[in-house]
Amino acid sequence: MDTLRPQFWTLPLTALTRAEWEALCDGCGQCCLHKLEDDDTGEILPTNVACKLLDTGTAQCKDYRNRKAYVPDCLRLTMRNVADQHWLPRTCAYRLRAEGDPLPSWHYLISGSRETVREAGISVIGRVICETEAGPLEHHLVDWPDAGDQQAFGDWEA
């Protein structure tokens, strides 16, 4: 079993072990939401519609290991492809580290608590609907906040 090195999250992504790479995820669930692309501008438009495998109460994949069998177009983030995934939220730990930025204070590796991602308003828990219940994605466009935008969620819920 891999052990996690102290402050491994400060290392370049290429220096991480597989276990460290997996532990870098803050568990927000935003990467498991459907997105639309504006045909005219190419802009990625986020929705509050979750993949059928995302547990909307925990923001965790219900079958992470076998997800590609159920969702063939599920993208596996790797050290090689993460820098090309511009649709990842600006708060994503993988994106932050790929761009050389530090993790935010609410990330569990910094705060010591898995709850701080939710307290900061970054987690999708309680704010999304499953794709099997949603209907047309166009009816579910949202403006997901970044860490400093905690008030943007306000009273908004799925």
UniProtKB/TrEMBL annotation:
InterPro entries: Puta_zinc/iron-chelating_dom, UCP006173
Any one Pfam family match given in the protein's UniProt record, by short name: CxxCxxCC
NCBIfam families: PRK05170.1-5 (NF003501), PRK05170.2-5 (NF003507)
Family (UniProt): Belongs to the UPF0260 family.
Name of protein: UPF0260 protein NT2_04_04750
Species annotation: Caenibius tardaugens NBRC 16725
